[in-house]
Write a structure and sequence with these properties.
6-stranded parallel sheet, binds zinc ion
Length: 469
């Protein structure tokens, strides 16, 4: 056995160990079958969970063509009955909206008492996940690309009433991630998975900030699992860029582990911080929807991660022990004023009313603000050092994304400087999650950071927009 193969084997073994640990804490997902060739023999795993239930595969023409041989063999050799598969056309490309969910649900209804098995990545998985949930049926998924962490997560990202939203629904009972199949995914989907994973760095840092400020404590077991899989998943950016076989197992484990951590923690906190809020803004406002293929979730998270890393670079240079708490308390706007400002910033965006439901859940009154500011001053010296170790500099995040042949600059999304400034200002109003942006707003340093990044001679001006090769 050569060393590259040994490396791949040890990544798979380490990954399966981590996954087994996560599965002791997940509510819905019981089985994750991960490795080479696993799609050919997952029949007995189905029978062990559901007995001799008939299955129905749901795919599109592309995902079906890469997976059908292995999965139909699995069904045949295990003697499971199979209803006529639901194969959606590849063109136009299926889009994860409520119409697609309704269509899949109606087709599943005509195949009574079958176990739905999604065969695909983000779109197909989300559509089948929600449709099966609406029918109160469990479901499984056979992944076809290492493109995002939603395989093992509860909730589906679906466009409804004109904007993308995360609709709560059950995670799959079983997930089959066959590296032989995943390997065939186009490089842009590997890059997308890498972008989603690089976002976990700031997600964890933001969780640490919320923990330190007494807003949301860290679950150390979940934290540890997430952190370990992040390091391994990001270890070989150039390998992702070149679609090297050896880069795939750890990237896939990272994506699986992130979804499992989210499921086990019952909230996306372990895998989603300010970088995902940037991605969410752009998703809701259809940034890059007209690209071919449309900009993926992971692409947006990657660029969001660059912006958040640049933000942290500045924040961690500041001395928050020097803030004047009485002045900050005096200047702190009442909630109504903060909401009016959020409305102004969101303008006509589909997000225009979102602050009214989100911001009040985390907006401190003066009493709470005072205690948070006192905490911030007391812990800053230590927290700063800890966060500097957790976060990577923006330059490193950009270099890694570029090596992975992923997007690394907001100009690649046709976003103007003014738009990015507005996005920085309104980011924290778009979700109730407490992040580093809330700390910066409360300590009064957010406008100065934005100016140093995006004002005249700001950091972003020094970044060249590099072409993806
Ligand atoms: Zn994500």
């Amino acid at each position: 056995m050569n060393s590259a193969q040994r490396d791949v084997d040890s990544q798979i073994a380490d990954g399966n160990e981590l996954i087994a640990r996560a599965l002791t804490r997940t509510g819905t997902t019981k089985v994750v079958s991960f490795g080479y060739g696993v799609a050919r023999d997952f029949g007995p795993l189905i029978t062990a969970q559901h007995g001799n239930t008939p299955v129905v595969f749901v795919a599109d023409e592309n995902t079906w063509s890469v997976a059908y041989e292995a999965i139909t063999e699995a069904v045949r050799t295990s003697g499971l009955a199979q209803a006529e598969p639901i194969i959606l056309p590849a063109n136009p490309r299926p889009y994860a909206n409520i119409e697609l969910v309704n269509r899949v649900r109606e087709l599943l209804e005509t195949r009574t008492d079958t176990l739905p098995i999604a065969v695909g990545s983000g779109t197909i998985n989300d559509a089948v996940k929600l449709a099966a949930h609406q029918l109160s049926r469990p479901y499984w998924v056979v992944g076809t690309a290492p493109s995002m962490d939603g395989y093992t997560a509860a909730g589906a990202s679906i466009s409804k009433d004109g904007f993308k939203q995360n609709i709560p629904c059950a995670a799959p009972v079983g997930v089959v991630m066959d590296l032989d199949i995943l390997e065939t995914a186009p490089q842009i989907m590997w890059a997308s998975g890498f972008g989603d994973m690089i976002g976990k760095i700031s997600a964890l840092a933001d969780w640490r900030v919320a923990d330190a400020l007494g807003v949301e404590s860290i679950d150390s077991d979940i934290w540890d699992m997430s952190a370990r899989s992040v390091v391994a998943a990001l270890a070989d950016p150039a390998g992702v860029g070149n679609r090297d076989r050896s880069a795939l197992p750890s990237l896939t484990v990272g994506l699986l582990m992130s979804g499992l951590a989210i499921q086990a923690y019952n909230s996306s906190r372990p895998g989603s911080g300010a970088e995902h809020m940037f991605s969410h803004l752009w998703e809701m406002e259809h940034v890059g929807l007209d690209y071919d293929p449309p900009l993926s979730h992971g692409a947006k998270v990657g660029v969001g991660s660059v912006l958040v890393a640049a933000f942290y670079d500045r924040l961690l240079e500041l001395d928050l022990t020097e803030i004047s708490i009485p002045t900050l308390l005096e200047q702190w706007p009442p909630l109504e004023a903060a909401l009016a400002e959020a409305d102004r910033l969101h303008g006509d965006s589909p997000l225009k009313n979102v602050a009214h439901s989100q911001l009040p859940k985390k907006y401190p009154d003066r009493e709470l603000l005072q205690s948070q500011l006192e905490t911030a001053v007391n812990i800053w010296e230590d927290l700063k050092v800890e966060l500097r170790e957790l976060m990577r500099p923006a330059s490193e995040i950009r270099d890694n994304l570029l090596a992975a042949r992923a997007y690394d600059h907001p100009s690649q999304f046709q976003l103007s400087q003014e738009q990015i400034i507005t996005d920085f200002l309104r980011l924290r109003t778009s979700r109730d999650r407490y992040t580093s942006f809330d700390l910066a707003a409360e300590t009064g340093v957010l406008p100065g950071i934005i100016d140093s990044l995006l004002g005249p001679n700001g950091t972003l001006e020094t970044w060249e927009a590099r072409e993806l090769k």
